[in-house]
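Schema walk-through. Below, the input block comes first and the output block second. Nothing else is stored per chain. Lengths vary across the set, and this one has 178 residues.
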Amino acid sequence: MKQLVLLVIALLFAQSNIAQIIDTKASKIEFEVSNMGKIVKGTMLNLKGTVNFDANNLEASSFEATADPATVNTESKGRDKHLQKDDFFGVATYPTVKISSDKISKTEEGYEAEATLTIRDISTKITIPFTVEEKENRQHLTGTFTIQRKEYGLGEKMGAGSIGLDVTVYIDCFVQLK
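--- output ---
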């Protein structure tokens, strides 16, 4: 009988920590960067992956997601095509941008993820402050972080005067709860 109770508890615990699939249609990545003195904003779609977030069990919480740089949209077709070429995202060789959490912790404002971001097969550690809102059986995770574009080989030949070195990234992610 004791073994049956332990088995039931283990199954319940395992079910509560099952990762949820990202709602690709509702989720997106936005970014902004200085370009010739003006702020250029853009999006990247096809955010796919899983989120396993439990505010009561942050040690077991995690996420892993990819986005498709071929979907980059800055509302300038010429610029978008250039961003897909090899001197930026190189989508023919590097078809995905990947991010995965290493550790999630609580902060005064919400949460913080220590994560690994991979662009063009270059991986770096980043920190993402984020918030989570649960509403209508969905989790909505939003986070913002800044990267140095040249760390990832993005527009290495472009000077800071034409394109800023800092790129601010906004993640807007929805998952359906079971």
